[in-house]
Amino acid sequence: MTAPASIHLITERDVEDLRRFELANRQFFESRINARPPAYYEDGGVEVAVAEALRDAEQDRGYQYLIRDGAGRLVGRVNLSHVRRQHFHSCELGYRIGEADNGKGYASQAVKLVLAQALGPLRLMRVEARARADNAGSVRVLQRNGFVQFGRSFRSFEIGGAWFDVLCFEAHAERAGLTA
Asked: Which fold is adopted by the domain 6-172?
């Protein structure tokens, strides 16, 4: 059993820890998800990204959280992006767990925690998420947290010259019992 995970909104104090995490896991992430631009890894790149994340949160456009284990070690990230208030009250969920900590339950815990934030204090009504169809672990994380598949996008994601199907999921405040 994995030690409990916690999440916290990213801050400027997290820059060095985040840089180490991203550099240590760069190859692993780039083999599975969209690569970050090379400038992200250059001097000042993480600082720029953190400053942008802080602006996004301040302007209610997105919220980036870091996932830490019970000892406070950075094990991953979970984000709420593309916040749309008017008419939709929705956002998109994304997450990544470092290679050494994959399969230990951190993603499931973090998604549960961030979903509670999104559908609770942030007052969003719907959270969307996507997972590669061949990523059984990520699909399980979403399903365990009450996400329901609503679609499939065929050959819609390319990485390393290979095309993948993407499954589309959603979670609703109403289904979670958070609305009247």
From this structure: Aminopeptidase (3.40.630)
